[in-house]
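Listing S7. Sequence submitted for prediction.
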Amino acid sequence: MTTMAATKSKEELQAEIGAQEGQLLASVTELVKIDSAFAETKIIQRFDDSLSKHNDQVAEEKKQRDAKKVADLEIMGSDAESEDEYSMQKAAQLADIAWREKWALRREKKIAEAVKVALKEKRDKVKNVMAGASKLFAVLNSEIGGDESGEPKPDTSADSIEVVETSTKLSTAQQELTKAITETEKYKKECQKLKKDLTNHKTQVKAAFDGDGPAKVDDEKKAHPMTPADIIASKLKEAYFPEQLLSISQVFSVLQSLKPEDAALAFCLREIAKHQGRLVEVVYKDKTRKEQVKKLKEQNKGLKEEVKDLEEEVEELKEDTKEHANTKVSLDAAKKEAAKFELVAIGLKQELLNKDPLFKVGVTVRVGFMEAVKRTWVNGDLMIVRGDPDKDIIIAKNDAVHRANFLADKSLFTLGILKHQGEMDDFKYVYKVSNRDEASGRPLIIHNLWGSMVACYFKTAHTHDKVKDDNFEKLYNDCRGLFEKYRKEIPGAEATKKFASCSTVGGKIAVMEGILADTIKKEQKRLRGGQQY
């Protein structure tokens, strides 16, 4: 019976395969550990932390500026002139925008560097995996007699993650191939055991045929030509299955035609029948293993084609990366340009906010003017010139011209229309506060009430009622004093909120509004007989 020739012992082969498998598994483990997404997450977390710290620092600086402003007001009084708060806020905004732009650029750069390092690491590990798989493949290929020229080449590009998946498939295929070889060795060993058993039986058969001695056999050979049965008997001394002479079916056909009393041939027949099943099973399993090896070779060929496709995809990916780099440069330039436009937009928005009060006054005055020309007064009588004049529009125009408007007048200074010291003194005379003062809600109402009373010659030689003037001034001072008290006790917007909800202040403002309304009527009567339409 023929056996597989081997250049290495089983122990040497297993040791070499085990060593190559260990190296391959170690390389695959190291490859799996590399996670570019994790590296990117760490960079993002670090930059998010720095952004959070920056936001806290900006908030703290604003808090300190607000506290300093409150302290200055406490020391110098609410009428003290301070630096332009808007300019300081705008400068802080510009500095913050510049910092955030640098932060975003550095963040993208660090992420790109971290991902590149991870991909380089992964590429090196993939090289190790492919090299280990190649070595293992060579060992197995040499043992089973495969075509070494089809040995898989290591992937030297390794810029695509899909190469890792292909390497894993190849490693799995190599492991299955190793398992098949191991089982083949097992059945090979079993065949050797069967061969040994058959050798023992062969010795017994030979002894049975040689019972009459060699001389007698030689004489019989000379006297009688050898029949097929004689040939079988002769060959059974060497092996059970003389494939070079007869097939197994022919052997059984000849043996069954012999006489039952021939003890030696009967013994052979029993032994052959005994081992036939086991030998057929071994042959079948060996054939199955060969088919598995052939299938694995076909799979390996498919993997080679996949690796080739992946190499082409990697080349395309490199081209895409170059294109991405060019796009990123363009994107960075666009971001810088956008930041400049954003600064311009911020400035324009602030300018619109400053102009808005004046715009509203201008609209009210000009619309009222268009209505006022529709009527006139002749000797105290109202004369309609054309159409149907809207009384409310004309009254709104008169109020816009003759009543105080703190925000609109303050915008004259913010926009640089008024800027001389004498003009600032005029503003302070009308509103009793600096043109740099900020006001909203009830404090704004109080400023406008005071300015409107001044416009009616309040506290001058031309006043209409000195008693009401004194009462109005007392109410005004009470409200201002209470507001300053809240600002000292409560920081920031909470003071304004408490002042707005104070019922005492609401009552005082209502009385002040009543005094102002009465004073306006008297002023209108003095100017044009009490008519304002």
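Caption to Listing S7: primary sequence and predicted structure tokens for the chain studied. The longest helix spans residues 263-372. The chain has a mean pLDDT of 74.
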